[in-house]
Write a structure and sequence with these properties.
single chain, 370 residues, alpha/beta, Aspartate Aminotransferase, domain 1, Aspartate Aminotransferase, domain 2, 7-stranded mixed beta sheet, globular, binds pyridoxal-5'-phosphate
């Protein structure tokens, strides 16, 4: 059976360069980076190099990078860490209705500890209006957390504009960049953020590793207390193997991420879908301000949760934004927040292309869909 993988926003395969970089740390270099002897040096140097590679992609200092167990931990660290460090100054956090659960749920958790959460809306294309954020600010606001790009629609948020507002009010600004790092530029000074989350498995690195960029001077309480690893910001012996993998993935993304080709393929695929299905195809998300690999479309008159198994049977991996439980249809919170009508949203399929996607794969998908 053919295997066509169009679910790169869920996870990516590890790049061969990443696997090669990790290999010596499976077989050879086992030392504890904190030790003082010969076995420690290769591990310590590898962690330093990996940190520098992540920092280079984000155009920040290596000392501003903390390794985490993934995007979820980075988000939790940013949100809870800011709240615990800043509680004396205020308790208000602003985020948006389309954030990943790894942002929404830490906020919900903090509500039980006295935090006040404001969720700003998005427009029909899935974008936040910076003026809504300005209006939501109160003297108690200590954090704004808005994702860089949405995982379902790929819509890119006006991060630099929001950063200006946050700065004017001296409020920490976090962005969940799990989907954007490696796909579009994510230099922290261009974005103007104080905190930025990275997830390794979205950019051809390993699963279970991520990073949090912490602008120097940003107050943050650690989530994990213990010995002084990661400059006292995250205790625990470093995950040398996965740190090396994330570093290699970042270096590769910086060298060549091939997203112009991916975007061209995606747009050609969308045109072909429109040609074949005409008005039965509706694009969800912003036409231009969108991740280059993401195509979220509704097949009007169809049901995504029925289409997906047909694609799966043909060996095509994609995802849907609708579900049916016990006869009740539900759209994803993101599609709901965008105001997508149920009769359109129910037919949603997300195709997310990757570095190895070729036109023949997409032609095959077209055949199966027709
Ligand atoms: C936007 C976004 N944030 C956070 C995460 C969580 O990252 P991880 O799986 O590394 O915990 C994901 C992954 O699905 C994501 O798409």
């Amino acid at each position: 059976m053919k295997h066509i993988y169009l679910d790169h926003n869920a996870s990516t395969p590890m790049a061969p360069e990443v696997v090669n970089a990790m290999e010596p740390f499976l077989h050879q270099h086992f030392g504890n980076p904190s030790a003082g002897h010969w076995a420690a040096s290769p591990a310590r140097e590898a962690v330093d190099k990996a940190r520098a590679q992540v920092a280079s992609l984000l155009a920040c200092r290596p000392t501003e990078i903390v390794f985490t167990s993934g995007g979820s931990e980075a988000n939790n660290q940013a949100i809870k860490g800011t709240f615990y460090a800043g509680r004396a100054r205020g308790n208000h956090i602003i985020t948006s209705v389309i954030e990943h659960p790894a942002v929404i749920q830490p906020c919900r958790f903090l509500e039980n500890q006295g935090a006040q959460i404001s969720l700003v809306p998005v427009d029909g294309r899935g974008r936040v209006d910076p003026e809504d954020i300005r209006r939501a600010i109160t003297p108690q606001t200590i954090l704004i957390s808005i994702m860089h790009a949405n995982n379902e629609t790929g819509s890119i948020q006006p991060i630099a504009e929001i950063a200006k507002i946050a700065k004017e009010h001296k409020i920490s600004f976090h962005t969940d960049a799990a989907q954007s790092v490696g796909k579009i530029p994510t230099r922290v000074d261009d974005l103007g953020v104080d905190l930025l989350s990275v997830a390794g498995h979205k950019l051809y690195g390993p699963k279970g590793i991520g990073a949090l960029y912490i602008r120097s001077g940003t107050e943050l309480e650690p989530l994990i207390h213990g010995a002084g690893h990661e400059s006292g910001r995250r205790a625990g012996t470093e995950n040398v193997l996965l740190d090396v993998g994330l570093g290699a993935a970042c270096a590769l993304a910086q060298k060549n991420s091939n997203y112009e080709n991916i975007q061209a393929l995606r747009d050609r695929f969308f045109s072909a879908l429109q040609e074949k299905f005409g008005k039965q195809i509706v694009l969800n998300g912003h036409l231009g301000e969108r991740l280059p690999n993401t195509l979220n479309v509704s097949f009007v008159g169809r049901k995504g949760y029925e289409l997906l198994p047909i694609l799966e049977q043909a060996g095509i991996a994609a995802s849907t934004g609708s579900a049916c439980h016990a006869g009740a249809v539900s759209l994803s919170p993101v599609l709901q927040a965008m105001g997508i009508p149920e009769e359109t949203g129910i037919g949603t399929i997300r195709f997310s292309l990757g570095r190895n996607t070729v036109w023949e794969d997409l032609q095959y998908v077209l055949e199966i869909l027709s």
